[in-house]
Amino acid sequence: MVTIALIGAGMRGTHAYGAYVLDHADKAQFVAVADPDQQTRQRFQKLHNIPEERCFQDWEDLLKQPRLADAVIISTPDSTHYKPTMAAIEKGYHILLEKPMSTDPIECIAMGEYAKQREQVFAVCHVLRYAAFFKNLKALLLSGRIGKLVSIQHNENVGYRHYAHSYVRGNWRNSDLSSPMILAKSCHDMDILLWLVDADCESVSSFGKLSYFKEEHAPKNAPLRCTDGCPVEPECPYSAQKHYLTDNLDWFTNTISIDTSLKAREKALKEGNYGRCVFHCDNNVVDHQVVNIEFKNGVTAAFTMCAFTKDTSRTIKLMGTLGEIRGHMEKNEIEISNFASGVTEFISVETIGGDVHGGGDAGLMEDFIRLVESGSTKSLTSADISVQSHLMSFAAEQSRLSKKVVNLDDFKADLSNP
Ligand SMILES: NC(=O)c1ccc[n+]([C@@H]2O[C@H](COP(=O)([O-])OP(=O)(O)OC[C@H]3O[C@@H](n4cnc5c(N)ncnc54)[C@H](O)[C@@H]3O)[C@@H](O)[C@H]2O)c1
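# nicotinamide-adenine-dinucleotide complex -> structure
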């Protein structure tokens, strides 16, 4: 039985890691929690039956105590990962850290280096590597069935509702408050490409901008909030009422208010961030971005992130010398074609351990608990492995802003000699 302390009991802390432990009470137990938000903290305390003296308002208070558990999960906002992580390592905790490791590339490198020197598990929540869909793709590549991999097309279809929720109204809307889109959302994609290609990154180039969710596109007479009698609300696909006041109590709706009664949600829309008109927010992150990548083994990848898609899904095409693979993550469908035989085989991927991130959340937790129990530090997503995909994200952002190709080795060297 692994004991865990949670730092940051928000959506991920409660609904991903907390939920996993409630479903696997024989494997792990939360024994301490820190979160400054009283309602959030108490919800977690109650769900996991944590004694009052082990509930803290801040990570510093929790980490001031003698070590309270085997491991700590850090799921605080993006820009607040570094300090609690380093303090927790010093205290001897095994670490599971939410991505991005940090919003500062130098801190990412420092964490990776530190992880190499320690005996503890230090894993980063790159959940896609644990999803059955991507595990299948990796196995197919290793089997050699499409020959030598030459190129990848990878699309992150964010989904118009998910984009409006997280990147226009929500926590990741403004890179000054959190991090640029390529780090906040697409560091998962940089990581999965790196894993599939199995070679270091040579160079990246990127284009993209915030095109639509801006004041200049606000319909005439649209008020600051959808709930303030907006004349176009009935036909607007981004209407807050349509997104949050239906019978659908999914994770989007759970974010706007802990109390999900209709009355509480209406109040949240009147007062909070999620009732704002999408054209009158303080957002600045891109709503579409492309990244071209060249790897050191000659493989190329073209990545597209776009807000303007119906569903939230990832789609991929892997092109090899003997065949091609096409895949749709949310449908859990893989299609593999062999050029010589002309045969196309359809593979239906079975997701084990729930639907979130294609089973990736559950797979990550299972692996983390197994590593803590076994004393092995060989995580598939250890901090030192995760540094490169973070640097690819930072380099892509530099390329987007400078409109220049960025070589990854030069980018790293510049970080060491500013
Ligand atoms: N791995 C994934 O697929 C994935 C998916 C979504 C989000 N994330 C990442 O997970 C992290 C958390 O995201 P979230 O959606 O849960 O956000 P959230 O805002 O719902 O939760 C963050 C929590 O941290 C708490 N917090 C803030 N300061 C703190 C402090 N000093 N000490 C203790 N707690 C503190 C907040 O009160 C909040 O409850 C982010 O870095 C995000 O980018 C990862």
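# post-check
The two ends are 46 Å apart (CA to CA).
Residues 2-127 form a domain with the Rossmann fold fold (CATH 3.40.50.720).
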